[in-house]
Amino acid sequence: MRPEKRKEIYSIPNLLCYVRILLLPIFAVLFCLKMDTAAAIVVLLSAATDVADGIIARKFHMETELGKILDPLADKLSQAVISGCLLFRYPIMWLLFSVIIIKESFQGIGGLLLYRKVKSMRSSEWFGKLSTAFFYTVVAYLVLFTPKVANAWYVVVPVLVSTGLMVFALIRYAIRFIQVITALKTENETVTVE
């Protein structure tokens, strides 16, 4: 393996993404065993690695093409697994889980299409980061405090707000995707005419 490739695979931000993915089965087991404090700590640790990998990658110029794929993949898996576990305890989580699946499927397919055209992955936007941060806050709260009434307002409201932020991020990403595709099409038409 080439040294540059090894350096990319084992960069600190990418290692943090691997850790985030490895935390998922640990969370699922702890949650199923109703070890809620430990499960909440895993959620917070996952959120911390998500924040840290982005900061380290930007500050120390460690952004890589692999990292641009790994980071959103780790986010998608984390959100799906964590919300999937929580929907067995809180029925309202079906709404958030469904939006996550739709949003992440769209982003995954759209990202692959763009990658095929431009051979580069774009990093996440502020609205994606906001929806992810709020998601982690809500699920940590729901796991740690385990409200007694699954459909109480203090469960439903945070889940609905998180769902709304996910929908907002989905719409913004869809708009960005359309803008990029339109720009690429215009660029190709210009090249063809010349």
How would you describe what is shown here?
The chain is an all-alpha fold. It contains seven helices and no strands. It has a single domain, classed as Four Helix Bundle (Hemerythrin (Met), subunit A) (Up-down Bundle), CATH 1.20.120. It starts with a helix and ends with a helix.
CATH architecture: Up-down Bundle
Poorly predicted runs of 5 or more residues = none
> C-alpha Rg, in Å?
18 Å
Question: What is the helical fraction, as a range of percent?
Answer: over 70%
- Overall pLDDT metric: 88
Give the class from helix and strand content and strand pairing.
Answer: mainly alpha
The domain tally reads: 1
CATH class: Mainly Alpha
Q: What gap, in angstroms, lies between the N and C termini? A: 42 Å
The share of residues in extended strands comes to under 5%
Helix-strand topology string: HHHHHHH
Number of strands: 0
The dominant shape is globular
Q: CATH homologous superfamily name? A: CDP-alcohol phosphotransferase transmembrane (TM) domain
Main sheet makeup: none
CATH-derived topology = Four Helix Bundle (Hemerythrin (Met), subunit A)
Number of alpha- plus pi-helical segments: 7
